[in-house]
Amino acid sequence: MKDPRMEVDELRAGVSCATVLEQATPPWRLDRAESTRHCLKYRRGAGEIVIVTHKGAGWWDPNSDAKGDVFGLVQFLEPGLNFGHVRKTLRPLAGVQPDFAPMERTRAKRNPTQPIAERWAQKPRLRKHSQTWRYLAGRGLPETVLLAAARCDVIREGPYGSAWFAHRAGGVVTHVDVRGPTYKGSLTGGCKSLFVFPREIAGRSRFVLAEAAIDALSRAALESLRDDTIYAATGGGMGPDSTEMIKTHLRAIGVLPGAQFESAADANLAGDRYAARHETLAIEAGVPFLRRRPPIDGEDWNDVLKSQGVSP
Fold first, then answer.
1. pLDDT tens sequence for the chain (312 residues)
2. The DUF3991 domain covers which part of the protein (predicted)?
3. Contact (CB, 8 A) for 275 and 263
4. Bridge partners (DSSP) listed for residue 196
């Protein structure tokens, strides 16, 4: 009889979390537009999302704090299973490659990924009246906000009028969210942290966190760029690195008078789940919390900005 501990190690090494999701009932589907080779986004049902990382060995749920290895994933999907049942579930999946794998390996060989920071550095900074500027102005962002964003270099100009929004860690660009007239996604090969505007944040005691960078900038526009506020965005789901960055900001503002964490997540079920997680982080940090929810269900703060209009 095989040593149970040896079998556990073999199953961890031999079963991809992506395979578990694809073989589930009903199956999860890979969102190719929102995935990279290092971070695979799977969807199922209304708002269900699981992110697969570490070459299939790890996963996390952007709608909760759940994360772990392939054993934890099976128990996350089927909470009633004990560890022995999980082993039985995983045995027939050992060595089964997820559907995405051949395509992803081929693409990786054909297009080796250039470091995110290098790709960012090669793009022009946001310029007045450029295609990207006109796209962002069309989203309702006023000139005052766009000029401020250009000065602190949080947006660069991508192809076809797209806007590139930087996530930074330690001053280095680690991830880029992309929004444009015909595209919504991110650059491959990055690691999410937070989009933060402005970059000089010392002494600012208020932290406003949205899902998308455009929503964070929309809050800045609606508030006429409050000089006590850090406007930030997760770029969608909250991974471990994003969560740690949020905690870092909360520790920094927590020692300042008037500190406050405001969740500007979207007015929908997923946004409310994010806001609940934001509140938990605020409580842990001892920072007062406010849910800043868009007034109409289904909308985000950019919708609010466009409906109200803000003078330049």
1. 557 788 898 899 999 999 999 988 888 999 887 787 778 999 988 778 999 998 899 999 988 888 999 999 999 999 989 998 999 999 888 877 787 654 444 444 445 468 999 999 999 999 999 999 999 999 999 999 999 999 999 999 999 999 999 999 999 999 999 999 988 888 888 888 999 999 999 999 999 999 999 999 999 999 999 999 999 999 987 888 899 999 999 999 999 999 999 999 999 988 998 999 999 999 999 999 999 999 999 999 999 999 987 655
2. 134-199
3. yes
4. 232
Residues 90 and 150 reside in one and the same domain? no
Structure token digits, residue 275: 């806001």
* 176 shares a domain with 150: yes
Q: Are residues 133 and 221 in the same domain?
A: yes
Which of these three, 110, 136, 158, is where a domain ends?
Answer: 110
Angle, in degrees to the nearest 10, between helices 269-285 and 240-254: 50
Domain that holds residue 87: 4-110
Q: Which of 72, 94, 110 is the last residue of a domain?
A: 110
Number of domains in the chain: 2
Sequential DSSP letters for 177-224:
EEE-SS-EEE-TT-----EEESS--TT--EEEEESSHHHHHHHHHHTT
- In contact, 235 and 214? CB cutoff 8 Å: no
Looking at the structure, do residues 296 and 164 belong to the same domain, yes or no?
yes
